[in-house]
Design goal:
homodimer, alpha/beta, Cyclin A, domain 1, eight-stranded parallel barrel, globular, binds cobalt (II) ion
């Protein structure tokens, strides 16, 4: 049963996104790249998610330039990105032509592996991007967002894996953003996918560490046949981040499973980020410990903070407990969507509305869209009475088709708009930046020539490299 | 294969010892006790280790009074302590009469479970205390200190378990103070003990979290048949501490293994310590992340800090790398002792001497004693040439017998000494306090009537209890 387990390193994207609010400057990642490139990872996640937004919003850095820089600094690595299917990296559905253009440009600039997901697990919302990836010859990874609800059975997830496989995906990823994947379901889900889709189906497992159980889930996923697991170097790990890369290597020793990772390189990467991390202390997540409440509450920590601040603005923070109790009801009404961006915000805000103004007396436009199918299909039926209220509120009908089918070609118009912005260089890349973040892009184009900012404190102060083991791993 | 896994809660002793330098005041633990008592633990570790020392050294608190208080506050719980065999809670070997008196008094004051270990795994050093425990009718737990070396095979550890079983131990504990126990050896070791000593041998597993792999080791130990595992409530967990109790409960769901723990109670315990912990921030361990270097270096982080500060005092901190390389050699010379108090300090200081003054040109008295057998037997042979140097240095011969056999009865003399100290109340308990910490005890007896100190900052400021999930788990 000896088998090589491949690893995707997350430090350059999800690691600092989860722990340091995506603020890490390219110049603080660059010095680690030679070691990352030589360490033996299956892939290096370094783009997508919130990094694109953060680059133009906070760092005055061109995200496409960042991608090209990673391509140069990691010549032997597969570069990997996270893509929100038809939403690309933005917050609305884009017409297929824009989606295709984005994928082509990403591939052209150096991307190798596209991990594509939809917040509702509606396969129709990932089809266009996955097909576009396949046409570029790059690696198309179909993704299952893991969540729990009375309807989310292993069987249903395996059904979804099969659908993704039928779309021609090169691999299947189980993405557990809320650290809800316990060891036994991890085992059952990986086994189920391997059984249904074939043993040669490459299965990746992405878990966060928040609940303290998912290192064990990685072990069980590996025992069930998982091929590639995601980890983050120890000095950018744990809390709302991920399990530590070095610990994965050590965990497997003697089990018959091994990685190809070079421990000497890992130590250097660790020490680099341990020296960088303290400079980003002001952006550090407030929740660095273990939180298991989500298993019962079903509510991610970040969502609670959002609802709490909404309540505070209304002078009603004392009603948080009612809102927390309302969330599962709203989620059931909406057909049990996974609670991930953007559905977590949509469900959370509606729960606040319900408590403050009476159940569905007021409705956000986004919640109406969710009820009416404009984000896609949910796993469960949505409450017909509330759909009716949504129709009245939004003054439009429910749909059952693929949302993007309603969209007209928009590339030419986006190009025209972008071209009118001062500082826009008229490249397809700039048009895409405008398409995804219209307001922020305009500001970014205007200031781009000032060059990237480093938001870490005293960025030029070299932090001494510690000798040997037993040093703080950064953070505190 | 459904089976109930029992749990020992560590928050009241090893949890704050590992994370907050053993400084937590009794008044900060008392409010959690009702929930701890009702949560369904197999036992509650609350005494021993460094707590006794910390009570009299820093907190002006009578450790025996603390024990009696826990007895009152935890009427339905097994109270558990950690005992260093013939060293009791001190740093030298005591004559058997003192050891027996200590065990009797501990039982009389409310202790139920005695976890007894020896730093060298020399069973002769735990025999007297284990037999004394058995005579009181309390639970005698024999302990294996887990470590790694070319000689520390599963077979040898299982041999030791068998010897402990033959001493009449009620259970066997695998104690992994440095988080070196990987999943596969955890499985093999528990299986090995169950096979050799019988399936009905109760096996406990105590691991720290430092290396990030031991939650998986707990899972594997459970799969191999472990009966009781040690965890600490999440708000006093991870880093150099332990795996979180709540995560253990969640990890097992769906596996066929279950705990008897009440999640509602656990949440209350968590919230209590989350509110208390920030007040002890100044005592917090600097190493709260994951450190895997020990797997290769064999050197615990705390030991490195010690050696570094010794070198700094000599103006030779630049020679740390040489010292780190010297440690494994010294350890081999000394017969591969586990590196735990006091052997870690003894080996570390000698390594510093060797680098600064030439190999074994100078020798500490403690290292000479270790080489000459005055701490007990080591697993491997000790270097005869260095034993000869130790004989010259210490001007005494090597021994092979049980070290405590050389000691004369000392109780009457200890009682006489203690009785002469101002503030000593002449109880056996006070004599034992004097016996274990002569200098500190004298100071403590003199100030005892001023009552316990709380070293937490603003100890009277009530911290608001957070509502629901997703809050910081303390610490930062
Ligand atoms: Co993630
Ligand atoms: Co311990």
């Amino acid at each position: 049963m000896s088998r090589t387990i491949e690893v995707t390193e997350l430090a350059l994207r999800d690691g600092h996104q989860s722990l340091l609010a995506t603020r890490m400057a390219m110049e603080d990642m660059a010095p680690a790249c030679a070691d990352v490139d030589a360490a033996g990872f299956w892939s290096v996640e370094c783009w997508g998610g919130a990094t694109y937004d953060s680059c133009i919003r906070y760092l005055n850095e061109d995200p496409w330039e960042r991608l090209r820089t990673f391509r140069k600094l990691l010549p032997n690595s597969r570069l990997q990105m996270l893509l929100r299917g038809q939403n690309l990296l933005g917050y609305r559905h884009y017409e297929d032509g824009v989606v295709e253009r984005f994928v082509e440009k990403s591939a052209e600039n150096g991307m190798d592996v596209f991990r594509v997901f939809d917040a509702l697990n509606d396969v129709r919302n990932v089809r266009t991007s996955l097909e576009a990836v396949r046409r570029t010859g790059k690696h198309a990874q179909g993704t299952i967002c893991y969540t729990t609800s009375p309807l989310h059975t292993i069987e249903r997830f395996v059904d979804m894996a099969e659908q993704l496989k039928e779309l021609g995906c090169d691999s299947i990823c189980i993405k557990d953003m809320a650290a809800l994947l316990r060891p036994q379901p991890a085992y059952d889900l990986v086994s189920g996918i391997k059984e249904r889709c074939g043993d040669d189906t490459q299965v990746h497992v992405h878990v966060h560490a928040t609940t303290g159980v998912t290192m064990v889930s990685l072990m069980k996923a590996i025992e069930a046949g998982a091929d590639v697991v995601d980890t983050s170097i120890s000095s950018l790990s744990l809390g709302p981040g991920h399990n530590p890369t070095e610990a994965l290597v050590e965990m497997l020793q003697g089990t018959g499973y091994t990685t190809r990772l070079d421990k000497g390189r890992l130590l250097k990467i660790k020490e680099h980020f341990a020296s960088v991390r303290p400079r980003y202390a002001e952006f550090e997540s407030k929740f660095l410990g273990v939180e298991t409440e989500i298993f019962d509450s079903q509510i991610p920590g970040g969502m609670i903070s959002n609802m709490e601040s909404q309540l505070r603005q209304q002078g009603a923070v004392d009603r948080l407990k009612e809102v927390l109790a309302e969330v599962p009801r709203v989620r059931e009404t909406a057909g049990f969507p996974p609670l991930v961006t953007p559905s977590s915000q949509i469900v959370g805000t509606q729960a606040v509305f319900n408590v403050l103004m009476g159940r569905y007396k007021a409705m956000t436009g986004e919640f109406a869209d969710l009820m009416l199918g404009y984000y896609g299909e949910t796993i469960g039926p949505r409450d017909p009475a509330v759909i009716e209220l949504a129709v009245q509120h939004a003054k439009k009908e429910a749909i059952t088709g693929r949302p993007a089918d309603l969209l007209k070609p928009e590339w030419d118009e986006l190009r025209r708009q972008a071209g009118a912005l001062p500082g826009c260089n008229d490249s397809d890349e700039d048009v895409l930046t405008h398409a995804m973040f219209p307001q922020v892009a305009a500001k970014f184009f205007a200031t781009r020539d000032k060059g990237p900012k480093n938001l870490g404190s005293s960025p030029t102060a070299a932090v001494a490299q510690p000798v040997g083991g037993g040093k703080p791993n950064g953070g505190k």
